[in-house]
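thought: fold this chain, then report.
action: predict
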Amino acid sequence: MNGVNRTTLTPHNSHRSWGGLRTEFGFKAGVSGAHTARTMMLTDLSVLLEAAPEGAGREQFNDLIIEQNILGKRTTSNRRLTAGHLCDLYALECSATVFRLLRLFWSADPSTRPMLALLASQARDSLLRATSPMVLKAKPGESLTSQNFAEFFHGELPGRFSPKTTLSLAQNVGATWTQAGFFKGKINKVRTRPHITAATAAYALALGYLCGLHGQLLIESAWAQLLDVSRDQVIRLAQEASKRGWLDFKGAGNIFEINFRQILTPKEIQASHGPN
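observation:
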C-alpha cells in the first residue's frame, strides 16, 4: 500500500496492532530514532510550544530554536542539533497530522502533556515504540534498569548499534518512559501508572484511527494499550472524549463505531479509511 510503513520491532506485541504507519500523516518507521541521542525532550518541547504561535511551521520553529535561542542552548551547533532532534520526534509541522493533533490536545489539557509527548514520540520513533511491550508488561512496583533496555535492544537489533550507543539509547528510552509517568527513580526505575485523561485517550485513539484501525481493533490496539488502563476504562475515556467533542463514539457489546470528523479533515479520513 502506498505511503504505509510497518514497524518490524514489536514481535512481542503481535497480538496488538499498531496498524499501518502512514508517513503522509507524520508517522515514522525504520530502525532509527532520536532516542539514540536524546530523550523525548519534554522540557524543550514545552518551552518551544509555549513560545510558538498556533499554526507555526518548521521554519518558525527553527527560527525560535536556532536564531532566537528560546531553549537557551550554549552553541549554535547545539541549537541546530536540538532543532533536528525535536523535528525527528515531533515533525514540528502542522501539515503532519500527528503534530497538529498534538498541539490541539496540548492546549486542551495541560495536565496530560507528558503522555501526549510520549504518544507523539511513539508515532515518530520506532526504537521507543519497540520497548512498549516490556514496559507495559511490568507491573506497578516492579523495576526495570537501563541494562534491561540495553539487553532488549541487543536482542532485537544485534550488531545494529555500538555498545556505547546502545547504552545511551537504553538510558534515553528509560528516561522518556519516566518523564511520561510510567516509572519513578533514575537508575532503578520502579513502575508506576501515568496520568491519563480523556484528551490522552482521544489522541491515542486518533493515532490508531489514522493507522487504519477501527471498532474493537481500535479499542484494543497497541495505541490504546499505551494508556495503561483496562479496556473498560478506555471505553469510558472514549465516551468522555466524545462529550468533549473530540470524537464520535457509539458502542454496544463488542461492536464499536468511532470516528474523528471533529478533528480530522475529510482528506485524512478518506486516506486512512477509504471513502465512506
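thought: worth noting. Residues 41 and 276 are 39 Å apart (CA to CA).
final: C-alpha cells above.
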